[in-house]
Amino acid sequence: MNYSDIDTIAAFSTPPGESGLAVFRISGPESGLICDKLFVPFGTRFPKPSDMEGYTLAPGSWGDMDEVVLACFRAPNSYTGDDVYEISCHGGQAVRQAIFDSVIAAGARSAGPGEFSRRAFINGKMDLSAAEAVMDLIGAQAEKQAQVAFRQLKGGISRTVHRRVDQLYGTLAHLEMLLDWDEEEERAEDRATLIRELDEASVELGRLSATFVSGRVIREGLAVVIAGSPNVGKSSILNALAGRDRAIVSPIPGTTRDTVEIDLTLGGYLVHLTDTAGLAVDSHDPIEREGVTRAESALEEADLILWVVSPPLPCVSEREREALRIDQLVAQGKPLLVILGKDDLRITLPQEEDLTKYAAQRFAGVPSMTWSDKQEGDLTRLRDTIITFIGYGQLQPDPVTRERQATSSTVGDMESHEVLTHARHKAAIDRAIALVTQSQMDLKNNLSFDLVAITLKEALTELATITGDDVSETLIETIFNRFCVGK
């Protein structure tokens, strides 16, 4: 939708519904004059809204509707970069509607989705990656989500991308300097230097791209699926992690027929936990078969699979079918942890039912852990294992990986902590990497410097789409239309 950037816009920044307070925001060149018409300050020491300077907070009344507090934020030191007035009023529906109607009648226009943030972007108050972080911060359900979003809001991604942009501009300047030379003056070492510079840039961009694996999980949450044969204790594990009885637990096989999904926070990370129907089922019951189908669908979408095996072990054919499915998932690259359940019963079982020996023989190389909801410490170990996976991207990180992570977490350089959380950003980085790689190949193949420069400029354009330094109006509209009204 096309809006004029010089209109005065207005909307509630707080969500609809009854509340103690609500905040109404007005931004634009006429916002002060509109408030002059409708706001009556308490006492003569408060100026009328259009005469307020800097940041001013004034109690008063809004017509005959409500007692409010009016806050003034003068341009350019406001969220949008324009004059902004915020009205804190009582949050009842009648009051909210009356204030909205009065402001619109006085000359403002109802703001569209994300229009305040769009104004901030247009006025240079934030770049595009920071604007996207605004919605991430609003939608954050877990501490790590909020921390990463806030860091990006403060320019974390922008600074990281601009480092790479500056690096590539340095190489481009070198290229353009060489373009001024005669071809006869070209030296082999010049090409070698350019190739080395581009290789360094490609490596750094590759490192940034690789952070999307953990960044996506931080922003979207880790999808953990609990799977296995019927009646092995899957629902007990879900209930233990949830800290409440969310799924029905019964000794009757096939109790869970549908997926049971809950969200929880572990170590500050958002986790989407799914309990599934038993998989090794030959059933004529259409509902049970549908449960198995949904379980398989959940496995395809999982970031981490907790596969539960418990005594007594099934017959040989069932064991082979289960082992084959685990092998298939591991071959697909699915991170999988075999949970050896009901470990409190191990001392009462015959040797042939010893799950640790069975897992060591049949699932060699697949991470596993023993589990019992009756054994103190097992729940903590399971939680810690999931948190470790989120932090390292591995269930059993090697000492080198742990050392690298520990070192980077103490480095003062902000870039060592920055991660990509948006697929849009990763796609732009990957396209830039491809173009930088193409530039290297062109140099190695002795293509002219002017052609290499064109390709390198295309790589810089891709990086500019992340921050909005070079971006289409269509993309701007697409991004801000995802925002809520009032932000």
Layout of SSEs?
Elements: E1 9-12, E2 19-27, H1 31-38, E3 39-41, E4 55-62, E5 66-73, E6 84-91, H2 93-105, E7 109-110, H3 115-122, H4 128-139, H5 143-153, H6 156-179, H7 188-210, H8 212-220, E8 222-228, H9 234-242, E9 260-266, E10 269-275, H10 286-301, E11 304-309, H11 316-331, E12 336-340, H12 355-362, E13 368-370, H13 378-392, H14 399-408, H15 423-444, H16 449-467, H17 473-480
Parallel strand pairs: 1-7, 8-10, 8-11, 11-12, 12-13
Antiparallel strand pairs: 1-2, 2-6, 3-4, 4-5, 5-6, 9-10
Structure description:
The strands form 2 sheets. The protein has a 7-stranded mixed sheet with strand order 3-4-5-6-2-1-7. The protein has a 6-stranded mixed sheet with strand order 9-10-8-11-12-13, sandwiched between helices. The protein has 17 helices and 13 strands. The chain is an alpha/beta fold. The relative contact order is 0.12. The protein has helices spanning 31-38, 93-105, 115-122, 128-139, 143-153, 156-179, 188-210, 212-220, 234-242, 286-301, 316-331, 355-362, 378-392, 399-408, 423-444, 449-467, 473-480, and strands at 9-12, 19-27, 39-41, 55-62, 66-73, 84-91, 109-110, 222-228, 260-266, 269-275, 304-309, 336-340, 368-370. The protein folds into 3 domains: 9-126, Probable tRNA modification gtpase trme, domain 1 (Gyrase A, domain 2, 2-Layer Sandwich), CATH 3.30.1360.120; 134-211 and 418-468, Up-down Bundle (Four Helix Bundle (Hemerythrin (Met), subunit A)); 226-401, P-loop containing nucleotide triphosphate hydrolases (Rossmann fold, 3-Layer(aba) Sandwich).
